[in-house]
Amino acid sequence: MGQQVIEQFLFEIAGLSPSWTPENMVTEAIDDIRAKVGDRRVLCALSGGVDSAVAAALVQQAIGKQLTCVFVDHGLLREGEAEQVKKDFVAATGVDLVVADETDRFLGALKGVSDPEEKRKIIGREFIRTFESTARDLAGERGIDFLVQGTLYPDVVESGGGEGAANIKSHHNVGGLPDDLQFTLIEPLRAMFKDEVRAVGLQLGLPEEMVWRHPFPGPGSRSASSAR
User: Fold this and answer.
1) How confident is the model at residue 174 (pLDDT cuts 50, 70, 90)?
2) How far is Cα 113 from Cα 109, in angstroms, rounded to an integer?
3) pTM metric for this prediction
4) What's the CA gap between 12 and 22, in Å, rounded?
5) Strands, DSSP E only, in 49-127?
6) 40-53 confidence digits (pLDDT tens)
7) Coil vs helix vs strand at 68
8) Are 30 and 62 in contact (CB under 8 A)?
9) pLDDT tens string 64-111
């Protein structure tokens, strides 16, 4: 009943059009990505989770072989995570994937650090340093200027983004980014919530088991840090 009241107000009284659909979200994002990137190359931060997988698939549809995904093994993964991403995501999308083993880098930077907020900032910094190094290796001196992240709207809000928003925690891909970031970010999911991201993933043809995968606490969270 409540949904009907809201829909009647929005569509019949306010005169709005229900155009925020998975199909339209995909079309608009692809157009925006192509206009922004042109013929240049792009890196995508692929974590193996739903958000980055959908973002990667979306950008791949937009620019194809101009995209290279980078999966960082930071030493705080589920067992077999790297192998699963290499097998399942590449099989589902055919994307060009590079796996960077950076366990020593991350665990060394986190050694002795107990504050969760500081951990998230360290992790954000080390991810970017890894992507910078990978970009140099792939493209030589010219480098790669664009980095795709699976940032969602709740990530932005929880990191204190937006008017009147408190900093609940700085997500490593938002508030944890270093000040000297050299990449231009592409975040096609930044205005979406998780249910919308899943709908977009299905619209892109990703397997249901990938789209509905259970979340895992990211590096820097209490459960991830205590698992080591």
Assistant:
1) low
2) 8
3) 0.82
4) 22
5) 67-73, 96-101
6) 999 999 988 899 99
7) strand
8) yes
9) 999 999 999 999 888 888 888 888 888 889 999 999 999 999 999 999
Residue 119 to residues 52, 62, 124, 129, 147: CA-CA distances in angstroms? 21, 34, 9, 15, 22
**116 neighbors 158 (Cβ within 8 angstroms):** no
**What is the length of the chain?**
228
d(CA 6, CA 122): 43
Rounded Cα distance between 170 and 129, Å, is: 18
What does the buried/exposed string (b/e) look like for 19-39 if buried means 16 or more CB atoms within 10 Å of the residue's CB?
eeebeebbeebbeebeeebee
Q: In the structure encoding, which two tokens stand for residue 21, read together? A: 């659909």
Inform me whether the pLDDT recorded for 228 exceeds 50: no
The answer to whether 58 and 34 are in contact (CB under 8 A) is no
